[in-house]
Structures are given as C-alpha cells and as structure tokens.
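input
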Amino acid sequence: MKVSAEFFPPRTTEGLDKLLEVAEGFRPFALDYLSVTYGAGGSTQERTLATVKALRARDWDVAPHLTCVDSERAKISELLKTYIDLGVNRIVALRGDIPSGMRDLGDFNFAVDLVKFIRDTTGNHFHIEVAAYPEVHPQAKNWQTDLQHFADKMAAGANAAITQYFFNPDSYCRFVNASRALGVTGDIIPGLMPITNHDQLVRFSDACGAEIPRWLRKRLEAYGEDKAGINELGLEVVGDIGERVLRGGAPGIHFYAMNSLEPTRSLMQRLRNFSG
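output
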C-alpha cells in the first residue's frame, strides 16, 4: 500500500522545527513521500522551498506542490531546476486558487498546461501527481466536464492523482470507474482528512467542495467542545472510509496531516496492515 502525508509550510522557524519533529513521528510507517503545499502564484514559495530543503536534509522523499496561477514560465523553470538540484523527483502540479478579481492568470491557465510544461522542460525526471475531485471541483461547469479535464491532465503526462478528501467512499469508486472508462491508467490515490475540529472541517469543506453528510455534521455538532469525542468519532469514520476504498482496490492513501502527528498516526496504524 502506498502511503503519503501532506504538510503546509510553517510561518516561523519554531513551526518548521515542530514540523520536522512531526515528520519523524511518521518514520516507522515507511511513507513513500511527504508533500508540501504551495500558495497560488507562489505566495508561499520561500517557505515551501525552506520546508522542502529541511525535509530533504533529513533524507525524506518530498513532493512539493507547484501552482501555476499568476506565474511565469521562467519562474517555474527556475524552481524546477532548484528542486532537481535538491534531489526532488516528485511534483504535485496544480492550477491553484484564483485570487478574487484576477483576470490575467499568467502564462498558465490550467493545471494541464503546467503538466505539459514540466514534461517538455524536464522530460521524465519528475513523477507528477495532479489533483482529482471525486465530488466535482467547486468551480467546474458540471461533472462530465470536470472528469474530462482530469483525464486531459493525466494524458498530458501526469503519473498519478491525489483526490480531494471525501466522506462518501462511493464517490471515489464511481470517479475511478468513470476515469478508467476515459482511458486513465495511472494510480488515483484517495485523500483522507482526519477529523479534529467541527468548525475547521466545515470551513475547509465549504471552500473545496467536499460534502459532509448530514448525519456526520449532526454527530459532530453533538460533541460540541468535546475534542476527545470528536477525535474518536473521526478515527471511526475516516478509518472506515479508508478500509472501504482499500477493499475496493485503492492503491494507497494520501493523508492530509495538517502538520500534526495525531490523529493521522492513529489512522495509519489502523490501516497499515489492512488487506481487505
């Protein structure tokens, strides 16, 4: 089973030290890589690069996120060369969020353009992951259009995909089956989000288009400020989702760790020996 975890670049030196400590807590799970997010237009470029360097110094395989909105080919090319020099051989290629009011998106309009550019300029050096949305991208015109855009990204040279998190495993299975029907052959890795905070989860989900089932919202609301209860419920719910998608043939799991060791570690422990 392929396992990876996602971090965001800390704002402070102390935060980076804490992230490195958290990463070491995942060492026993033999993760395939750690990914590091990157703001649209490179808004976290310096912090992302510093985080990648720190993780590489500790011999982690790292997959930096790279967004292309409000960016230039020369800038992206320079950053790719920097990553090559650091021994990075994975990239998560994304469009990135479009800032409010922006009309000129820069040299790249969509993630497919970035994937093509990476392949054209670096050949097969990078294993490229792209994003997938089992419940449809929040800005997509419709389900079929969104699915075709995903297939186009894969055909442009992406090796694999990481999905947005979801709480309905059937949506993942349907998405995979529909993608295969369009000729997609690469791995589609389900993303899982640990549940630790009701308000935070609602905010994230509303922004990214991930549906929280009504029954789950109500159960979370019932716990109020009971963090231990929320964590226990989250482990039960997300762990069950992980088991169901693995049983259905998912090649691995990508964990949105949110720079914390728990409860992601507990989920990994639950799923590490799951054979379906």
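quick obs: The chain has a mean pLDDT of 93.
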